[in-house]
Amino acid sequence: MTMNQLLLDFQHSVAQAPWHRHCHLSCEVIYVRRGKARFTIAGVDYTAGPGCLVLISSLEEHQVRVLSTPYERYFLLLSLPELSRALPQTHLTAALRNRPQGFCHCVPLRGAKPAADALFAQMGEEVSAALPGARQMMESLLLQLLVLLYRACPGNFAAPPG
Questions:
Q1: Predicted TM-score of the model (pTM)
Q2: Distance (Å, whole) CA 26 – CA 14
Q3: 46 phi-psi bin (left φ>0, alpha ψ -120 to 50, beta other)
Q4: 106-108 and 7-13: which strand pairing?
């Protein structure tokens, strides 16, 4: 599903296949729902467990190794230009494009895990149902996800303008 090229891919998976080192032209957001995995992103290792959000920018080389199963995750491939067009008034897309010094690719959402679980489940419903207004609903859900991310790790965002 393309949602007019905003959302290039959305998947919910429990597959355990090994992943090779690779990169994408789009941004990737991975949400670990259960299990644990080691992410190597741009040469830095992160361990992501339940409730962690992993942010990978375009052309950032990364690799994943499952550490504990069942490893359940959601992942989104997003067009950053389309996301910036959809949410032009917010600095919240900066975590996917303007990385401040000390940026962390792996953010534990801690107490916001139930909210994130619900957001990703609703995204899955939007993708599979393809109802009228799906793009607007997905934009709203992505904005909510970015707010959760900001609340969990404001240091991952460049300072808002003026």
A1: 0.90
A2: 22
A3: beta
A4: unpaired
